[in-house]
Every structure is written in C-alpha cells, then in structure tokens.
Design a protein that fits this description.
The protein has about 190 residues and is an alpha/beta fold. It folds into two domains: about 110 residues, Rossmann fold (3-Layer(aba) Sandwich); about 70 residues, no CATH class. About 55% of the residues lie in helices and about 15% in strands. A hairpin with a 2-residue loop joins strand 3 and strand 4. Helix 2 crosses helix 5. About 30% of the residues are buried.
Length: about 190
C-alpha cells in the first residue's frame, strides 16, 4: 500500500512525515533523495554540471549557483533540470519501495501532483494549513523574502486543488490533532 504524502511548503509536511515514521511506517523522502543526488558522487552531479556550467563544487552541486542558472533561463532551465533529476528520483523511489516489501509505505513528495507521482499511489494525503499560517512559517525561517515566496507559491499547484484530489487531509494547525489524524490513517491502511 503506497500512500503519497504532499503539501505546499510551510504546511508541515516534514513534521507529518515524521509522525508516520514514529508509528513505524517507512517513509521515502524526495527532498533527501535530491540532496543525495546533488552531493559529490551523486548521480545528478555530472549531468547537472554539464547542463549548467559553474554549478559544481568539490561537494557536489551548489544549489545557490543552480538557482541563479535557472533564473537566467526562465523559459527552459527548469524543464532541462527536471529532465535530468526526475528520472533519477523515480528510480531511487522505485528501488526503495521494492526493498520495503509488503505493507504500508509513505512517499513524501513536495511536487507530487505536478510530477504525476499520484498515478503510482494507492491513496493520497495532503498536509494543509491556512495561507496566513503557511506564509508566517516560511518567512520565519529567514531563508527568503516575501517576493521570493510569492514567486515560488505561484509556481506550485494551489492548496485547494491539492486538497480536492486527496483521499485524506491532515490539518497541521494543531499538531496533536494532526498526530491523531495520522494514527487514524495508519490504522485504516494497515
């Protein structure tokens, strides 16, 4: 049983994924996989560095340099990067899933619907919170400006659209309530 777990940034998806782990459910993490692919020796380093010169360092792909390269190619850069990275991510996810054997597993994927990953899942859970809380959480990290946040959010599928496609919705305004919801989902699917 594959449960896809997704939600826009700042919704509490990573925290919710940990709640599944805490209940003994194996969780595959797309973000961690991409970090490993970009690290020195990772399968994405050579092809990304070839396509985006100046992005490679001694530790792998420099994400800031890659972001700048993508901004310099707004029409084609992201598609080119996705053509390199998405097949590598899918291969890692598939190999990981096979190793887990039978039972419930969770795929933690930020761009879940955008990449069509939902087609390979038995059920979908969307993590959500109101827009004001989402914005406050993200800006509190201090890693981006409000304008950068607006640009990223404009590229993502709206939360309402994700919720409309979900089998389960996990609200993260109250973490005790979210933890209870995760436990209900695990009980139902195992």
């Amino acid at each position: 049983m594959i449960l896809g777990l997704t939600g826009s940034m700042g919704m509490g998806k990573s925290t919710t994924a940990q709640m599944f782990r805490d209940l003994g459910v194996p969780v595959w993490d797309a973000d961690a996989t991409v970090h490993a692919l970009y690290a020195e020796g990772g399968a994405a380093v050579e092809p990304v560095a070839r396509r985006f010169p100046g992005t490679r360092t001694e530790t792998g792909i420099d994400r800031s340099a890659l972001r700048a390269a993508l901004n310099a190619e707004p029409e084609t850069g992201l598609d080119a990067l996705n053509a390199i990275v998405h097949p590598l991510v899918a291969a890692d996810r598939g190999a990981w899933t096979v190793k887990q054997g039978a039972g419930l597993v969770v795929w933690d994927v930020p761009l879940f619907f955008e990449t069509g990953t939902d087609a390979a899942c038995d059920r979908v859970a969307v993590v959500t919170v109101d827009a004001e809380t989402q914005r406050a959480r993200i800006l509190a990290r201090g890693t981006m400006s409000p304008a950068e946040l607006d640009l990223i959010l404009a590229r993502q599928m709206p939360d309402a659209d994700k919720r409309a496609r979900a089998d389960y919705i996990i609200e993260t305004t109250d973490m005790d309530r979210a933890r209870s919801r995760v436990a209900e989902i695990v009980e139902e699917l195992t």
